[in-house]
Write a structure and sequence with these properties.
CATH class: Mainly Beta
Strand content: over 45%
Distance between the termini: 20 Å
Order of helices and strands: EEEEEEEEEEEEEEEEEEEEEEEHEEEHE
Number of domains: 1
Largest sheet: 6 strands, antiparallel
Number of helices: 2
Shape: globular
Helix content: under 10%
Number of strands: 27
CATH topology: Tachylectin-2, Chain A
Length: about 350
């Protein structure tokens, strides 16, 4: 199958973004939700900023204090045996998988484009942490347009876990907050763009801590706020590109064969690729076909090297006639775009 990477890739890098916080550096501009508003492509980018530190023996962690509406900086000595600093993204207590703090704070900022290749970044955040459930940052947005409203949902991180929160807007100026729609531990939500037999559907990714892997589920709602009838949709596959964990990527879109969902899968060594699953047009809880092999793998330098290398991670796609324009985060650092043909993607799948 042919894929076309834009010559301008990466389209947006940390060097293109001025830090919002004084004394911080931008380490990531990635995993953006994508939509079109008034003939302009909106890229709602996850911006990760890290406090500058001139002492190599100290690791800093930014935390938003919702009581005082201020950003606080905690400092940890690398020599403190109570903490594990081996992962540059997180600070964990020793001999514990769960993390206590993040080493950067993420928020969402708009980049705009007329041609989909050259983007201009807004100076201010569009969505910034605003409550105690977002104290460690907000990440990885998706955007679903339904009628004249744009529903924006994202991972909200705090000391009580990571859940999925949602806001909506009609003009990308005023925001209406709807609160958390999927409680921790959950993320990678993707809401279908229309009613199906009188109900809304959403993909989501719970994180079991018992005997299962992070896999894709599907849920129903009558109002986009309260979700039920949760069903397991798609599982990991031993020995394949999606063996360790999987999650929804871009918002599902209609094709002549069903709903096409671009989803990410990771191996045990944390290599993230992008594949596809085809769902029944009238019953999206029914899987019709799936990628046996990844559609897109981290191959280019900007995909293999970065803050967390070996990652292709899509949060948004635009479909124009038979062309999929998949915007994706590369190496947890930058934004890039790939074009694929809808028919070729459908033909590449293994049908059940």
């Amino acid at each position: 199958m042919k894929i076309y990477r834009y010559e301008q890739n990466p389209l947006l890098t940390p060097h293109d973004v001025k830090p919002y916080h004084e004394g911080f550096e931008v380490i990531g501009a990635f995993n953006a939700g994508i939509t079109v508003y008034q003939e302009e492509i909106i890229m709602l980018v996850r911006i990760a900023e890290r406090p500058l530190c001139d002492n190599p023996n100290i690791v800093k962690a930014p935390v938003y204090n919702s009581c005082t509406s201020t950003l606080e900086i905690y400092e940890f000595l690398k020599s403190d045996s109570r903490y594990d600093f081996s992962d540059p993204r997180v600070i964990r207590k020793t001999n514990q998988e769960k993390w206590s703090y993040l080493t950067s704070l993420s928020y969402l900022r708009i980049a705009r484009s007329k041609d989909g290749r050259h983007f201009t970044m807004d100076n201010e955040p569009f969505i910034y942490p605003s409550n105690k459930l977002e104290s460690l940052g907000i990440e990885d947005p998706r955007i679903t347009k339904i009628e004249d409203s744009y529903y924006i949902y994202y991972s909200a991180a705090s000391q009580v876990g990571v859940g999925e929160a949602m806001v909506s807007t009609k003009d990308f100026k005023e925001i209406h907050y709807h609160g958390m729609i999927f409680a921790p531990e959950n993320k990678d939500v993707a809401i279908f763009p229309e009613l199906i037999n009188g109900r809304y559907y959403a993909l989501h990714r719970p994180v079991p801590c018992s005997n299962a892997s992070p896999e894709i589920w599907i849920a129903e709602s009558k109002n986009l706020l309260h979700w039920g009838n949760h069903q397991h949709l798609l599982g990991t596959r031993t020995g394949k590109w999606d063996a360790c964990r999987i999650g929804g990527g871009a918002v599902p879109f209609r094709t002549n064969k069903g709903w096409l969902e671009l989803y990410h899968g990771a191996t045990e060594d944390h290599r993230y690729c992008m594949g596809a699953v085809l769902l029944d047009i009238n019953d999206p809880a029914k899987v019709i076909a799936r990628s046996e092999y990844p559609l897109v793998e981290p191959e280019e330098e900007y995909e293999t090297n970065g803050f967390f290398g070996g990652v292709v991670f899509s949060c948004g796609a635009l479909v124009e006639e038979d062309v999929i324009k998949m915007y994706y985060g590369a190496a947890d650092t930058s934004m890039a775009c790939i074009e694929m043909d809808v028919k070729e993607v459908l033909d590449s799948l293994t049908y059940y």
